């Protein structure tokens, strides 16, 4: 019984290899086709917005050149809605952690907040929601 199973498996492997060889020779040279792998994860696509929907426009990163810098109001608080994580975590000025692939944001004190590695850090929950993210369920 074991010998028959091994022979059948070997015959299947040989038949599959022959079929793949036949398919590769049969493919037309002008249409190489085939599946092409795509980058993962897909980068987020900015939403199109009209002139009246300023809150839906994609965020433009802050100029961090020596002459530029983050926008700060009169009280010394940053007014930039989001920033890149610093050292794998969010700074105290932008405590809300967001994962772009899942479209979820985590607020301090949440069940998954400590273990979340953020893609972006938001000033507050309203800023994250304005970018189309939803709050975590826990």
Describe the structure.
This protein has 138 residues and is an alpha+beta fold. The protein has a domain at 65-138. 22% of the residues lie in helices and 10% in strands. It is built from two helices and five strands. The protein has helices at 2-26, 125-130, and strands at 82-83, 96-99, 104-106, 120-122, 134-135. It has a five-stranded mixed sheet with strand order 1-4-2-3-5. Strand 2 and strand 3 (104-106) form a beta hairpin. The chain starts with a helix and ends with a strand.
Q: What is the mean predicted local confidence, pLDDT?
A: 75
**Main sheet summary:** 5 strands, mixed
What does the radius of gyration come to?
Answer: 26 Å
Low confidence ranges: 51-69
Report the order of strands and helices.
HEEEEHE
Number-wise, the strands total 5
Share in helix: 10-25%
Structural class: alpha+beta
How would the global form be characterised?
elongated
End-to-end C-alpha gap: 55 Å
Side by side, the strands of the main sheet go 1-4-2-3-5
Q: Count the DSSP helices.
A: 2
* Strand percentage: 5-15%
Summarize the structure.
The chain is 22% helix and 10% strand.
Helices and strands in order:
Blueprint: H1 2-26, E1 82-83, E2 96-99, E3 104-106, E4 120-122, H2 125-130, E5 134-135
Parallel strand pairs: 3-5
Antiparallel strand pairs: 1-4, 2-3, 2-4
Which structural traits does this protein have?
single chain, 5 strands, alpha+beta, 138 residues
